[in-house]
Every structure is written in structure tokens, then in C-alpha cells.
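Q: Could you write out the predicted structure for this multi-component system? I'm mainly interested in how the pieces pack against one another.
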Amino acid sequence: MDWIFFGEISLAGLAMGGLYSLIALGFVIIYKATRVINFAIGEIMMFAAYLFLAFAGGMELSAWIALPLAVIGGSLLGGVIEKTMIRPMLGESPISVVMVTIGIASILVGLVEFIWTADPQLLPSFLPREPVFIGPLYLAPKIAYGFLIGAALLIIYLLYFRFSRGGVALRATASDQAAAYSMGINVRRVFNMAWVFGSLAASLAGVLVAATGGLSPQFGIIGLSVLVVVIVGGLDSILGALIAGVFIGWLETVAGAYLGGEYRMPATFLVLAVILVIRPYGLFGTHEIERV
Amino acid sequence: MRIGDAKQSYEADEAIWTTSTQKLWFGFFLLVLLVFPFMADSYLLYLGCLVGIAVISTTGLNILTGFTGLISLGQAGFMGVGAYTVAWLSVNTGLPFPVTLVLAGLMAAAVGILVGLPSLRVKGLYLAIATLAASVFLHFIFAEWESVTGGMGGLSLEPAHLFGWSFQSDFMMYFIIVPLAVLMVLAAANVFRTRIGRAFIAIRDRDISAEILGIDLLRYKLMSFALSSFYAGVAGGLFAYFYRVVTPESFPLSMSIFYLAAVIVGGMGNLLGGILGAAFMTLVPEALKLLTAALTPFYPNAPVFMSPMLEIIFGALIVGFLIFEPHGLAEMWHRIRRFFRLWPFKN
């Protein structure tokens, strides 16, 4: 066995997994606050990446201006989706709400094809190009710097939720809506903020992932990998999202490198199936007790 | 205004046709279905066959999702199992189509039971993800088990045959697909007049209460999975005979979502809704194609925008129906019927 090769593949996988963790964090924020499983998260990522393409490629803005603009655009999109399409579904069965997000995903794919056509696109490169070496191991610079930017946002988020007023309001709403409401927390605004923050994380990850692998209207398929991550980690666990994100990213890359690309999805879904059988609520998720 | 239909027994209340008017209309509908292929051109025949296949599969998914409350993202995978069973049997054994279709249904039902096994432990969205995992594995098997499935190239098969007849044209296929669709929908309607069907509905409404009432949850959930995948398998088998080529790409995840959308647009937990939804969702893209063809002389770019428009309309239909008409097309149908029934006394 070639340990250098294994190390490099693992490193690339772990870095990719870091971005998965970021997306999964966005997913978990939305789920914790509003109990909505967001199947459209991959498409929100895609939309933000196309916005970046429009700002940086079409309007020829500097990438460091285009990146925040695209991320803001993506998070606004999340807020608008929540206000117009998710809010009216409050109190409906979870199946219906999930189907709404699937519908939203389809609308977003259509919109992107409408505006930017269905052809694959390349994002203008904006990350440094010097190769990165960690010890003897080479890591592609795009992946390395993408990981660093993603990790920075992740840490900001964790600190924000721990210490700020908004973060506390969000956690209070997640643990008990009625109590939070009676303590004067504007629950409706928290719902909206959760979608904005969740989409923000997804948007940044979307631009970073698209910068390494290219962009097309099928980009949203990455949402399936994120779904695996959050189910394995536990739908309502931030810690679970972080750990499972890194693990699934690593597994996917290693399976792809050693067994071939067609084994990537089955490998991760196999882990998913095993987890569902052993711990149906995920590694770190809350075990809900049902009463009649 | 309908009068004089006071029901005197429980059987009368549970009957599929409660009035003779309904029987009359149903007979008329069957007559239309029978005459249709002799009047229609090849395009309409093609559409008729497509709708028939979609009705069977949607009815199957409706049993599972609409009546038992178990959401499934694996319907396309089960259809694939049925289609590959038919294709393999047709290539390797040359059995006539009634045998292959039944075997396709049974094969899909067996896979459905296997997929349904986790349904006792996980439910709701976790179950949806489990069925999604199943469809990923099935797609992988279709693509990689080359000695049986032919790999990415797939399998091509001969036309369906019985007693020396060969069902090659759409015209001939219509006489397999549509009677089967009518038969299978009627069978489903009858299931819900029995203990089994009512157990499904009890599980949907509250599974823990159903268990306390003495319903064996695992058994009935698996039964629902088996029945639903049997329908999917038969629909997949018909799909194989209709297109006469089966590849792994014939049954993508988007197809599972299509059938879920058909159930929702039609009306969950309503057999009539399933039929309306399947027909509506199949015909909308065709209507859009006709519209595009009509617009092309004026806007040469129209064909370019057709596929994105289709995606947007598909999504907007799902979102719109769920927000504004959660009970689907079936509810609209009932509203129209109510209008005529109460006429002229209401307004």
C-alpha cells in the first residue's frame, strides 16, 4: 500500500469534508429552529455559485467583492424562500413541507438553466495557486484554501451561537418554541434568521466547492451527500454535523480514489443504512420519545 | 339534487359505487376508453399508454404514502426492478407477457419488503432517506451487475407476446396497459374495503394508537410496501415492453420525485386523486411541448427555454398545490360534483 498516496487522498477528503460540515451546519440550523428538512440546500448552494459567476465573470468585479455579494445573495434567497413558501406551510405534515422544498429545488434548477443555460461553467479562479505541502503530503491549493475559508466561517458561527443575543434566541427557540415566545423572543424573526444563516453557510460552501470542481445545473446533487451527513450525525446535532461531515467527505473521496467514481454514493449510503439500523436518530441526534 | 339514496346497511355505505348514476358514468367512461384507440392518432395513443403506466405506478405509491403514511423516494427503483425482471425474462426465457408481468410485480414486491424492513424502527423522513438509500443501491446494481443487467448499455427486448400475437405497436400496447390500469385501480379500491386497507389507514393516522388496537405494525407496514412495489413492478414491466429498452438511466431519482408529485398534486390518500395526478403530471410536459412548437415561428428561441420552463412549472405545481390546494385535484373534482349535486338549491 502506498501510504503517501493514501495520505494525500485522505487529506483532500478531510478538507472536502470540512466544507460538507459547513453545509451540514447550515442544514442543522434550519432544522433545529424550524423543523424543516431542507432538500433544496444543494440548489441554494448552486444558485449562490452562479451569482458569483455572474458578479466575477460577467460583471468582472474582483473576486473578493463578488464572493461576499454572492453569499449575501444566497442568504437573501433563503430568507425570501422562508417568507413566501415555508411560512404558509407551518403546522402541515413534515411530508408536505419536504415536498415544498423539493419543489423549490426544481424551480431553482429551472431558473438557473433559464438564465445561464444548462452548459457546465468554470468559475474564475481566485484562490492562491502555490501548491500546499503538509509534511510530505501535497494538497491542491483550491481545496486547502477553500477549507480554511470554510473553517473560518464555521468557527465564527459556533462562537456566534454560543455568545450572541441572536444565537441564544435561536437556541431557545430550538429547545422550546412556546417558552421562547413567552419570554419575548420574536420567534417568527428567528425562523427567518435561521433560513438566512443556514443559506449563508451553504452559499459560501457552494462557491468554494464550485471553485474546485466546476459548476452546472446538476450541482445540487451534492445536497444528497449533505443529507447523508446530517442523518449520520443526527438531524439536530451541530457536533454531529461537524464530525459526520468530515468523516463522510473522507469516505467519499477515498472510496472514489480506490474503488472508482461509481462507488462514491453507494459507499456513503451504505454507512447511512448501517447507522439507520443501529441508531435511527443518528450518532448524536436527540432520541424523541413518542406519546399517544 | 340527488335524493332517495339513504343507505340501509354498512355494505351499502362501503360500496365503491353508491348510486346507479355513478355506475352509468363509469360504464360510459369504460366505453370511451374502449373507443379511444380506434379514433386517436398515434400521438394520442402514445400519450394514453404513458398515462396508463403512470396511473398504475402512482396508485401504488398512493397506497404506501397516501394511505399508509410511509413516504418513499424509491418508487423509480422498484419500477426498475420490475423492468429489469421483464427484460431479463424476455431475453432469456421468452415467457409470454402475463407471466413476466406477474413475476416482475412479485420480484419488486420482494425487494420492497426488504426495503421496508427498517420501517418499524425509523419513520417519517428518516424512512424517506432509507428508501433513497435503497434507490441508490438499486441504481448501482443496475449499472454494475453486467452479466444480468447489461451494465450501462442496458437490455433490449422483443415485443410482448401471447398465443402467437405480438404486441408491437402502441395500438396493441394500449390494450395491455389500459385494461391493466383499470383492473389494478379497482383492486386497490377494494383493498381499502377490507381489514388490511383499514389497517393501513389506521397506521397513517396514528401508528402507536393502531398498534394498541391490535394491528401488527411491522406486518402491515411490510404488506403496504409489498403491495406498493408490486404496482411499481408491474408499471416498470409495462415500461420495459413499451420502450423495449431498459437502462440504468431509465429510472432516475427524479422519476421517484415525479410520482410523489403526482400523488400530491392529485390528492394524497385518494385513489381518484392518484389517477388525476398521474394524468395531469404526464400531460403538462406534453402541453408545454405543443405550446413551444406553436410559438417557435414567432420566437425562434422558444425550444431553448422549454426544458428550464418545464423544471420551473414542475416545481411551481408542487409548491402551489401544497400551499393553496393541499387536497389536490381530487378536491377540485369534488367541488365541481358538489356544485351539480346541490344545484339548483345552492345559490
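A: Regarding packing and overall arrangement: The mean pLDDT of chain A is 86.
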